[in-house]
Amino acid sequence: MRDAEGPVIIGIAGFSGSGKSCLAEALVAEAAAQGLRVAYLKHDGHADEAPDDWEKPGSDTARAAAAGASATMVASKHGFLLRSRQEGGFPEWFAAIRAVADVDVVIAEGGKRAAHAKIAVVRGEDEWRQLLESGALAIAAVVSPDWAPMGFPVPVFRPHQAADLLAWWRDRWRQGALAAPTVPA
Predict the structure, then answer these.
(1) Which of 37, 76, 119, 160 lies at a C-alpha separation of 20 to 30 Å from 14?
(2) Which range is least confidently modeled, 11-15, 35-39, 124-128, 180-184?
(3) CA-to-CA distance for 154 and 19, rounded, in angstroms?
């Protein structure tokens, strides 16, 4: 599934409570079951505006960060957790994943206004309209539990169709159809 540029990126966008995390988990499980190496990236939009609270108060890494460390890492022979204080967005985050992990696919949750192609997770027509009005870009497919409008400009999948969605995404990626953002009218 990997291409010459690096791992395939599958973006997921939607509002809080729409089912983004459940879809991400299903896609991760399906890709892993197919033998693909998977990375998961979660954009925490709430952390963009709130104080930094990712590390346990008083932990060694929290104290090092407070002392001025721009990156901290907790590591063992089983793996590591890297934390960077560099500012950036999805391009920088994808570059960081490529730098530290050899993966075939990145499931990227959040970032509805980011340029990479993504799946919109919506609970109905009103939520779809609100997502577009909020500036969502590059929507290539929709996942919705109970809504399939006639003439919809992109394919619609149900939440239980992770295998079908992954196969569709893989085919579209190979065709180059997801390289450039697509925005429904």
Answers:
(1) 37
(2) 180-184
(3) 19
With vertex at residue 76, the alpha carbon angle to CA 71 and CA 27, rounded to the nearest 5 degrees, is: 80
C-alpha distances (whole Å) from 153 to each of 98, 123, 184 are 32, 17, 6
Please list, residue by residue across 106-136, b when 16 or more beta carbons sit within 10 angstroms of its beta carbon and e when fewer do: bbbbbbbebebbbbbbbbeeebbeebbeeeb
Domains annotated for the chain, with CATH where assigned, are 8-50+90-174 (3.40.50.300)
The model carries a pTM of 0.83
Q: Give the C-alpha distances (Å, rounded to integers) separating 16 from 29, 89, 112, 123, 183.
A: 22, 20, 12, 11, 21
